[in-house]
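Researcher: I'd like a structural prediction for the single chain below. Treat it as a standalone chain; there are no partners to consider.
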Amino acid sequence: MNQTSDFDDTDRGHVTGQVRQVLRGEALVILGASATLYFLLGGELWLFAVLFLAPDLSLVGYAAGRKVGAVLYNTIHSYALAAVLAVAGALTDREILWQVGLIFVAHAAFDRALGYGLKYAAGFRHTHLGPIGKPAGEGH
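Model: Treating it as a single chain, here is the predicted structure.
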């Protein structure tokens, strides 16, 4: 019996049209809000610059396979993880936690505003915001 989960199925798992544009627009607003809050709370520019692309280090998970890569990428690019870090930092008065949380929110929002969504196990180019890049076999 060959069953596939929704995590593997890309045929019905992404948004299109106006809804896709709304989600990308919302991500742009979240990017602006999280970056603004970070700097209003006294976050340093150098830390923001150094850590902004750090979530993309999760791409190394793809070396262990598509499913592991997608799970690691999605965990790190989740608004939920970033929010937990930010709230934990605020509640415990640990600046680095809320700073990392807000930077990770900004990064995830930046990716989504550009159309790079959460990944399916079918492969890196299959996202909840639709396929990215050229399909395999297409020329340059």
